[in-house]
Amino acid sequence: MSAPRAVALLSGGMDSLVAAALARVEGYSLTTLSVDYGQRHRAELVAAERLSRWLEAADHRVVTLDLRAIGGSALTADVAVPTDGASEGIPVTYVPARNSVLLSLALGLAEVIDAEALVIGANAVDYSGYPDCRPEFLDAFDRLAALGTKAGIEGHAPRVLAPIVNMTKADIVTTGVRLLVPFGETVSCYAATPDGLACAACDACRIRAAGFRAAGIDDPTRYATV
For residue 69, what is the DSSP state? Predict the structure, then answer.
C-alpha cells in the first residue's frame, strides 16, 4: 500500500520545515509547495528548494503570484520592516489574506495529485498575531475545502494539518532538533540579505532567537550584524 500524500507549504523558514518534517514522520509522502508572491527577498525561496531535498519530497513546486499588485504589507510594498520590537495590534508585516491564498493553492494541487492533507507551519502561540495563523481560521478552511472542491463533494477533501499550531517557539526548536532538521539552512528573517543572512532586529528574528534561548539550544541562525 502506497503512503498517503500531502502537500506541504514550505516557505524556507523554521516553522514550515518542522511542520513538514512531522508530517513525513507520520508517514506522508510530501509534495512541497513554495509561493513566490513578491516577498522582499528570494533567499527564503532558495532555502525552500534546499529544504525540500532534505525532506526527500516527491516533488517541489513553485507558484508565482505577485501580491505586490495588492500591497498593504511591509513584505509586499514600499513599507519599512519594523525593527523596534512588537507593536500593538496586527503588525505591518501581515500580508493580507496570505494564508487563505497559500492554502487555496495547496488545496488545488492536492486535488490534482490526490493528496489527503495540506501541511502548514502556522503557529498561534509565540507569533506576530496574524489572524490567519489561528486554529479557528484553519478549522474554517477545512470546512471550505469540504464545500468548495470536487474532492469534498465526493467525500474525501484534503484536511489541514497544522502540527505546530499550539507549540511554543521553544517547543518547535526542540522538536526540530529531535527530528534533526537543518535549522541553519532556514531563513525566517523579514529583511534577510540576498545570501539569507538575518537582520536580528525584525519581529521574526526576535521570536526565533527567543525560542532558541528558551529551549537552551545554540542558535544556528546566520546573522548579518551579530
Answer: G
Residue 142: all three cell numbers together: 477545512
Q: What is the pLDDT of residues 163-177, one digit of tens each?
A: 999 999 999 999 999
Nine cell digits for residue 43: 533567499
Give the residue carrying C-alpha cell 539552512: 185
Contact by Cβ (8 Å): 36, 60: no
- pLDDT at 226 exceeding the cut of 60: no
Contact yes or no for 63/48 (Cβ under 8 A): no
Phi, psi of 225 (to 5 degrees): -120, -10
Domain boundaries, the chain: 5-215
Q: In whole angstroms, how far apart are CA 133 and each of 3, 15, 115, 120?
A: 28, 12, 22, 9
- Taking the model in full, what pTM does it have? 0.94
Report the alpha-carbon distance of residue 39 to residue 116 in Å, rounded. 29
Architecture of domain 5-215: 3-Layer(aba) Sandwich (3.40)
Residues 87 and 126: their CA atoms lie apart, in Å, by 14
